[in-house]
Amino acid sequence: MGLIKRISRSRAVQESLGLLVASYLKLVQRTNRFVMEPADAYDRIGPQMPVIAAMWHGQHFMIHFAKRPQDPAASLVSRSGDGEFNAIALRHLGVRAIRGSGARGRDIRKKGGVQAMRAMMRALADGEMVVMTADIPKIARVCGEGIVTLAQVSGRPIVPVAVVTSRRMDFNNWDKASIGLPFGRGAIVLGEPIHVPRDADAETLESARQTVERELDAVHERAYALIGSRDPGAKARNTPSTALARGSRA
To answer: 177-181 — which CB contacts under 8 Å span 24+ positions?
Structure first.
């Protein structure tokens, strides 16, 4: 490992980076004028807490803006070096990190997926909202089976969430990430809760997976429309999502 990488992964540097990211996101939240849709989202979803908040990868930087202060929350964060300062930033934002991620074509145990699933189930059982990306690893905006499996075994509903701002930086990377800039307008859109029966068979799970994917696309499309913009990460894939999701099974 090179000197720069060793320095960047030192605890002191990552603590500083995490605090810097959290402070910046707080500035974005304070200086943007947000509208929420539906206006009574908290009244409708609050009684169903804790829920599983679903987001697209790359749209995760501002997702905590949708959380009420009184709702304890935990978020799935990868075990990578970058994930460490993300976890630190989340701590400063009042969100507990659960370390681990899914795997595509690799041993899921090495990525901490099994332990993470158990930790998320415990969090939900203890009354914590769980926030997680729905995408298959490294395939943007194609919902995998992980989030619907969590909903099935926990009995908690999935709520699709989008948080966007009119002033932002859009990155030309695999997940078309966006991060807000201060002094603009913002939109927070929450979809209807999606319930997955505990006794769901393979066909029902696939239907739920497709519903999560479709509704996440819909809330993002609506959020960008509310700020008069176009979603830079809108679907741009050549392979049907169903085939991709099925092909990702370990």
So the answer is: 177/57, 177/58, 177/59, 177/61, 177/233, 178/58, 178/59, 178/61, 178/232, 178/233, 179/28, 179/61, 179/62, 180/25, 180/28, 180/32, 180/61, 180/62, 181/28
Asked if residue 236 has pLDDT above 80, the reply is no
Residue 9 lies in a domain: no
Residue 178 lies in a domain: yes
pLDDT surpassing 70 at residue 112: no
Is residue 243 pLDDT above 70, yes or no? no
Burial of 37 from C-beta contacts in 10 A (0-12 / 13-18 / 19+): middle
**How far apart, in Å, are the Cα atoms of 233 and each of 59, 102, 182?**
9, 21, 21
pTM, to two decimals: 0.88
Task: For the chain, give the number of residues.
Answer: 250
Residue 168 to residue 160: CA distance in whole angstroms: 21
**Residue 161 forms part of a structural domain:** yes
Number of domains in the chain: 1
In-domain check, residue 43: yes
| Nearest in space to 135 (alpha carbons), one of 46, 28, 223, 220 | 220
How deeply is 206 buried, as exposed, middle or buried, from its count of CB atoms within 10 A (0-12, 13-18, 19+)? middle
137, two tokens: 């690893």
Q: What is the mean pLDDT of residues 36-41?
A: 96
Residue 202 is part of which domain span? 26-247
Please tell me the distance from the alpha carbon of residue 196 to that of residue 150, in angstroms, as a whole number: 9
Question: Greater confidence, 239 or 163?
Answer: 163
Whether the CB-CB separation of 159 and 67 falls below 8 Å is answered with no
